[in-house]
Design goal:
The protein is built from 9 helices and 18 strands. By secondary structure, the chain is α+β, with helices and mostly antiparallel strands. The chain folds into 4 domains: 105 residues, PmbA/TldD fold (2-Layer Sandwich), CATH 3.30.2290.10; 82 residues, PmbA/TldD fold (2-Layer Sandwich); 107 residues, no CATH class; 75 residues, no CATH class. Strands 3-2-1-4-5-6 form a 6-stranded antiparallel beta sheet. A 5-stranded mixed β-barrel has the order 7-13-14-15-18. It has a 5-stranded mixed beta sheet with strand order 10-9-8-11-17, with helices on one face. It is globular, with a radius of gyration of 24 Å. It comes from Candidatus Johnevansia muelleri. GO terms for molecular function: metallopeptidase activity. This is Protein PmbA.
Length: 439
């Protein structure tokens, strides 16, 4: 399906919906094409050449918004989906909310710079399978690695088209390349997993994909001989992957979807200190070459640099047009979430972070869903390492760390310089002053 055909379906969908008497309509088309390979113990466990189409259609009738998903891009399916959406909307019309609709034309994107995020990987099916097998086979030879849960590799091209009845149409082409590996080390009942991955929109920045197998092996081996820690209150060092997850809970708490429903522990907290005075959180959605970069959000609103935390103070919520209207505020261009988040802080050498801990724990893996965004309570199962007198002593397992997110944020002692750039939140290790540890 070429570009002209897609634009025809977009235009037809909008015109058909408006003829049905809706107030507004928006269309979001996504097309994915790629290769997905899963190799397990030297054999192909799963292989898929994918080409998926999906079209999301939203209609607005008297302040009621109804979303429908159409899996087939053809006239018959589009008409059927819009008809169903209109019936549901007419049965659920709401008068209590004002101005629930599309973003005003004045805040829709009009500039679409090349963000350098479309770089197809010139690899065929046989080469993808060979690379996956090679990565797994090379690391299974490492001493004390006793098994594998496989290597997964995918490379995908995506075309996104968003349009609405206010006359907006925006297109975004991107690529996403991903390789992961899970290995097992140990003996008898004492088996431990190690996982790692690499990703990018441009394979030229992934020169040695086999390195993720080596990293996964080292992680698995490092956990052999783990014990349970003693109960107590102590500093907790989150590695970058988990520090990113911790900051993602902050973004959930300032998301308009949680705020307008009064389901966030940061409701009505604008202007309050949430983090230390040396800590700021900024968003740069127009960064060149970053996977999550975009010139418009999921509602067509132009994206811009946002500052959410400045010198520890919460100065902005994260709002889509829909949630902003519900709260009587303005969109921050964040329908679909935050893009390219950076922590502005005094960075500490990673080695110094460990050296300055007399008695604490480095957490390397977390389990469970024990995070309550309504009140901020935090309790997770964990795996990690005991740190004594500035040195990593031994691996730990089967313990829980607990606190409250509000308390954890304000008690961040340091941010490491070992920044992980792989995802939308770019951050190094985070050292929290004190959490409760139990096993």
């Amino acid at each position: 399906m070429n570009k002209n055909e897609l634009e025809y379906y977009v235009k037809y969908s909008l015109e058909y919906a408006m003829k049905k008497g809706v107030n507004d309509c928006e269309i979001n088309i996504n097309i994915y094409k790629g290769i997905n390979v899963n190799v397990y113990k030297g054999k192909i466990d799963n292989f898929k050449l994918s080409k998926n189409y999906e079209i999301n259609i939203s209609v607005y009738i008297d302040n009621c918004k109804i979303n429908v998903l159409c899996k087939d891009i053809n006239i018959s399916s589009i008409k059927e989906s819009i008809d169903k959406a209109c019936i549901i909307a007419y049965l659920n019309k709401k008068k209590e909310y004002e101005d629930i609709g599309l973003a005003d034309p004045s805040i829709l994107a009009i500039k679409f710079p090349d963000l350098d995020i479309y770089h197809p990987w010139n690899i065929n099916s046989d080469e993808a399978i060979y690379l996956s097998k090679y990565i797994e086979n090379s690391v299974l030879k490492i001493k004390n690695i006793v098994n594998s849960e496989g290597v997964f590799m995918s490379t995908n091209k995506k075309l996104n088209i968003y349009a609405n009845s206010n006359g907006f149409i925006g297109k975004k082409k991107s690529t996403y390349h991903f390789i992961s590996c899970i290995l097992i080390a140990g003996y008898g009942k004492n088996m431990y997993k190690g996982y790692d991955y690499i990703n990018n929109c441009n394979m030229k920045y992934i020169q040695f994909p086999e390195i993720i197998g080596i990293s996964a092996a080292l992680k698995a081996k490092s956990q052999v001989g783990a014990i349970k820690p003693k109960y107590g209150k102590m500093p907790i060092l989150f590695i970058p992957e988990l520090a990113r997850e911790l900051i993602s809970f902050f973004f959930k708490a300032i998301s308009g979807n949680y705020l307008y429903m009064k389901q966030s522990f940061l409701n009505d907290c604008l202007g309050e200190r949430i983090f230390p005075s040396w800590f700021s959180i900024i968003e740069k959605p127009l960064e060149i070459g970053c996977i999550d970069s975009a010139s418009f959000d999921n509602e067509g609103v132009y994206t811009r640099n946002n500052i959410f935390i400045k010198n520890g103070i919460l100065i902005s919520y994260m709002l889509s047009n829909y949630s902003a209207n519900r709260m009587g505020l303005l969109s921050t261009g964040n329908a679909g979430g935050a893009r390219n988040v950076y922590i502005k802080a005094h960075l500490t050498y990673y080695a110094s972070l460990i050296k300055n801990i007399d008695n604490g724990i480095m957490v390397t893996e977390l389990f469970g869903q024990g995070v309550n965004i309504i009140n901020g309570d935090y309790s997770r199962g964990a795996v990690g390492f005991l740190i004594k007198n500035g040195k990593i002593i031994r691996p730990l397992e089967e313990f829980t760390i607990a606190s409250n997110l509000r308390k954890m944020f304000i008690n961040i002692l340091a941010v490491g310089d070992n920044i992980d750039y792989r995802n939308n939140i770019k951050i190094g290790s985070l050292l929290i002053n004190e959490m409760v540890v139990s096993s």
